[in-house]
Amino acid sequence: MIAVRDLHKAFGEQQLFRGINLKINKGEVVVCIGPSGSGKSTFLRCINGLEYFGKGEILVDSLELHSIKRVRPDKHDLEAIRRIRLKVGMVFQQFNLFPHMTVLENIIEAPMRVLNVSKEAASEQAISLLRRINLESKVSSYPDQLSGGEQQRVAIARALAMKPEAMLFDEPTSSLDPEMVGEVLAVIKGLVNEGMTTIIATHEMGFAREVADRVVVFDKGEIVEIGTPEEIFANPKAERTKTFLSRVLKI
After folding, report:
1. Least confident residue range of 68-82, 189-203, 225-239
2. Is the four-CA dihedral 164, 167, 169, 173 of positive or negative sign?
3. Which residues pair with 167 in a beta bridge?
4. Total-model pTM
5. For the chain, does the N or the C end have fewer beta carbons within 10 angstroms?
6. What is the largest CA-CA distance in the chain?
7. CA 106 to CA 87: how far, in whole Å?
């Protein structure tokens, strides 16, 4: 479903990725863990075309996203990014809902503008999504009338309204109060159980262990280890993985 080949990414003179390779199969759940600043979020943003990269290629299904070495992307680059984003939805740490729009309006905006879905059809789908995440009663509410957990669930519904074939979650619970984390993870778990191809960057180790088919450990812009949850959490091979887990799990 997704293949990342020889990915290089730098911020100015500072090199982050020096040739990352990773393949994600259709229906697979891959969870990225590692210290803050290790490259997890940037990796997801490269897949979705939000970050340009200097070398390598990313394939999503049959679509290719290549490195952009120009000062500005040309129309061909932008068209490739647009097509990738139609296949891959993304949910961020911050909810990024339009504050002047209701919950319903936030969800139907993209399907109407990008997919040319009628307002009636988009609204019907939005209601169905809200029912699925137990927020049907908030259809006319504005973002500032919602809790953080509710806003993040609406952000997930908004991404799903575009009917993506894969979903990227960039630390979706990091901005939430602890009591709100569970309701967001439950929604993501539901998607995983339905077979959605999913890549999740998270600091929630228990959740990673529960839902992942594979765990990818990032450190200093490198993938230092890949394995099943059992392999990574019970018997890590790389010293950097052991060090990271000893800190976050307080072993």
Report:
1. 68-82
2. positive
3. 89, 198
4. 0.92
5. C
6. 55
7. 19
